[in-house]
Design goal:
The chain is mostly helical and 109 residues long. It has one domain. It is built from three helices and no strands. Helix 1 packs antiparallel against helix 2, helix 1 runs parallel beside helix 3 and helix 2 runs antiparallel to helix 3. The radius of gyration is 18 Å and the shape is rod-shaped. It starts with 8 loop residues before the first helix and ends in a 5-residue tail after the last helix.
């Protein structure tokens, strides 16, 4: 009787990192809107704390690149199940697309 395949630990970690990134992106959007509304009329330029949001956005994109790489590595393993690798890859890609879309629409920076 063949032994059942176990779930990929790389895939599980990839999914967890991607989900953390999704929660982090939601918090980042809330923080950016609070910063933008609290300093709306000051000195005509960007609010002071908005540069911190940009740095955190770069951190988020780097974290999602790591999750994406781990998900792809989990998909390439033949001796383990690939479900969590696929979920981690899809979630990381979705979070990256959402972060870029929010940035381009002006919601984050």
């Amino acid at each position: 009787m063949p032994t059942p395949l176990r779930h990929s630990s790389l895939g599980i970690v990839s999914l967890l990192i991607a989900l953390f990134g999704a929660v982090f992106l939601a918090g980042l959007a809330v923080a950016a809107s609070i910063i933008a509304t609290s300093a709306a009329g000051e000195n005509g330029g960007h609010p002071q704390g908005i540069s911190v949001v940009g740095v955190e956005l770069l951190f988020l994109l780097g974290l999602q690149l790591i999750a994406l790489g781990m998900g792809v590595a989990a998909l390439r393993r033949t001796d383990e199940r690939r479900l969590f690798g696929a979920l981690g890859t899809a979630t990381a890609a979705l979070v990256m697309v959402a972060a870029v879309a929010l940035t381009l629409t002006g919601r984050l920076a």
